[in-house]
Design goal:
This protein has 1 helix and 9 strands, in the order ββββββαβββ. With 111 residues, it is mainly beta.
């Protein structure tokens, strides 16, 4: 089990969590929750943005934008099973960036 902490976690277009934990079990999202003011669990700080999605193997074009990623990954009706992480991109940005900055998160067994 691996717990990662991020500035922002998108569950859907409508559900955005600020300062949230995502719990990974193998390659799957086991749980996710927003931190309370005084809550600070043992977690790996990643920062950036995490997208929770039902899509397993996503192939991104070379250049992407946050609105494009949201449209591609987020679906309110599907149960999120996978997590993708981006660091160094402003949450309000619509400027294109390299998709090489996107990584799929997994539990590597070291935590």
């Amino acid at each position: 089990m691996r717990r990662v902490l991020s500035n922002w976690v998108f569950r859907s277009e409508e559900q955005l969590l600020h300062r949230a934990v995502v719990v990974l079990c193998d390659e799957y999202v086991g749980h996710y929750y927003q931190l309370e003011d005084d809550d600070m669990p043992m977690a790996e700080w990643l920062g950036g943005i995490i997208f929770l999605t039902a899509k397993e193997d996503v192939v991104f074009p070379e250049l992407v934008t946050l609105p494009f990623i949201k449209k591609m990954l987020l679906c309110e009706d599907e149960m999120p099973c996978y997590a993708y992480h981006i660091q160094g991109i402003d949450i309000h940005s619509d400027i294109p960036f390299s998709s090489s900055l996107i990584t799929r998160l997994e539990d590597d067994g070291d935590y």
